[in-house]
Design a protein that fits this description.
- About 30% of the residues lie in helices and about 25% in strands.
- The protein is globular and about 60 Å long.
- The chain folds into 4 domains: about 90 residues, Rossmann fold (3-Layer(aba) Sandwich); about 70 residues, 2-Layer Sandwich (Dna Ligase, domain 1), CATH 3.30.1490.20; about 130 residues, 2-Layer Sandwich (D-amino Acid Aminotransferase, Chain A, domain 1), CATH 3.30.470; about 80 residues, Phosphoribosylglycinamide synthetase, C-terminal domain (Glycinamide Ribonucleotide Synthetase, Chain A, domain 4, Alpha-Beta Complex).
- The longest helix is centred in the middle third of the chain and has 21 residues.
- Bound molecules: adenosine monophosphate and glycine.
- The site of adenosine monophosphate (AMP) has 15 residues, from strand 7, strand 8, strand 9 and strand 17.
Length: about 425
């Protein structure tokens, strides 16, 4: 089979790496990919958001399956466009991807189907939002409705900050159109946990849990980023905990999407808060997390292509999915300055340290090959994943290899997995 993965970050490198182990795949492509995917697949110089370009390439090359990994092309309807052209595509269509692309849609869905989440109100009138903020309990959480690169959430400790956030989003266009409508919601307390799951429109099968670190600096300080590192499992869960999440959140969400006429097929990301009243949904994403994929996929023992096909054929219920009971940790190495401005084009050295090692993987993100050298080309540059028997061993081993890789102004957190 010829398979193409759309995207070019660490998540896509991890997906390409896992798919490359499938004996049924004869040729792999990645659009646009990075210096890491180039070792396992043929990179195609197309933007992940170039819907027509990806469709035309897939038709020309007779690609058997396109895996759409990032949020933007999913929300823009890349899966719909590929399917309309007769190309098999893995991922939710645009209607199902609304579960991530519109927070208002997701919140209304949860309310209608009694899925536990923070209490909320939705506003498209600024004065009404400001009046609400004047009377609600603090802290309060203000969210831009649309996709805002994971940055459209402000936790306001006081009324003044809350009002500024409302004005910034609704009239000053801080997040462009994504913030013209806002969701204002109750602040939840408790540890956070991510559960990714495979879904086939009817069935949902949870993966091992994970936990990412979104803030740029140690001690959960600094700006929010796409994610600076992650561990899997994210916490110890009993069979009873998992059953509760399945019965109260995972299955009701998939049932709700089907009832709404938008069955969800693909990867669904449950961002949960484990509150004193039980698990509650903070957010849904319609895709693998990045860097969560870089710790979850290395723990998957089964063939990923088989599972993707089961999701597309509505046979996920009977699909065998086997997980390792080991632990994984990924530490992201970023360009100095990220998530603000940073320079690129820095030569990366030490990448060969993981060659011939077992249970250590370097997943590239913002890298490219320039004159035979691997150089930086983005904010998050790469992630070093290590697998071990215990969480502590996985963390120590990931850092052991991080220290062997260098590039000018490299920045990474030193407390991944240690603060949770
Ligand atoms: P989101 O983009 O919705 O995942 O929000 C980003 C981060 O903001 C989450 O990972 C949480 O740490 C925090 N957050 C979002 N919603 C809430 C909430 N209702 N209560 C407390 N923290 C929240
Ligand atoms: N790491 C968070 C996300 O992928 O949304």
């Amino acid at each position: 089979m010829k398979v193409m993965v759309v995207g070019g970050g660490g998540r896509e490198h991890a997906i390409v790496w896992k798919l490359s182990q499938s004996s049924r795949i004869s040729e792999l492509f990645c659009a646009p990919g990075n210096a890491g995917t180039a070792i396992l697949a043929k990179n195609v110089p197309l933007k992940a958001t170039d819907l027509e370009g990806v469709r035309d390439f897939a038709l020309r090359e007779k690609i058997d399956l396109v895996v759409v990994a990032p949020d933007d092309p999913l929300a823009m309807g890349m899966v719909d466009m590929l399917q309309a052209a007769g190309i098999k595509a893995f991922g939710p269509n645009a209607a199902a991807a609304r579960i991530e692309a519109s927070k208002a849609f997701a919140k209304n869905l949860m309310k209608k189907y009694n899925i536990p989440t923070a209490a909320y109100e939705i506003f498209s009138d600024q004065q009404a939002a400001l009046d609400y903020v004047n009377n609600c309990q603090m802290p309060v959480v203000i969210k831009a409705d649309g996709l805002a690169l994971g940055k459209g959430v402000i936790i306001a400790e006081d009324r003044e900050t809350a009002k500024q956030a409302v004005k910034g989003m609704m009239s000053e266009g801080v997040f462009g159109n994504a913030g013209r409508t806002v969701v204002i919601e109750e602040f939840l307390r408790g540890p956070e946990l991510t559960v990714l799951a495979f879904a086939d429109g009817t069935n949902v099968r949870a993966m091992v849990s994970s936990r990412d670190h979104k803030r740029a600096l140690d001690g959960d300080k600094g700006l929010n980023t796409g994610g600076m590192g992650a561990i899997a499992p994210g916490t110890e869960l009993s069979d009873q905990d998992i059953k509760r999440m399945h019965d109260e959140i995972f299955q009701p969400t998939i049932d709700a999407m089907r009832s709404e006429g938008s069955p969800f097929s693909g990867i669904i990301y449950f961002g949960l808060m484990l509150t004193a009243d039980g698990p509650k949904v903070i957010e849904y994403n319609a895709r693998f997390g990045d860097p969560e994929a870089q710790v979850v996929l290395p723990l998957l023992k089964s063939d990923l292509l088989d599972i993707f096909e089961a999701c597309m054929d509505n046979s996920l219920g009977s699909q065998e999915i086997v997980w390792s009971d080991k632990h994984a940790c990924v530490v992201v190495m970023a360009s100095g300055g990220y998530p603000g401005s940073y320079n690129t084009g820095k030569t990366i050295s030490g990448l060969e340290c993981a060659d011939r090692m077992t249970d250590v993987y370097i997943f590239h993100a913002g890298t490219k090959v320039d004159n035979g050298n691997v150089v930086t080309s983005g904010g998050r540059v790469l992630g070093v994943t290590a697998i071990a028997e215990t969480k502590e061993q996985a963390i120590d081993r990931a850092y052991e290899f991080v220290q062997q890789i260098s590039f000018d102004k490299a920045h990474y957190r030193t407390d991944i997995g240690r603060t949770c």
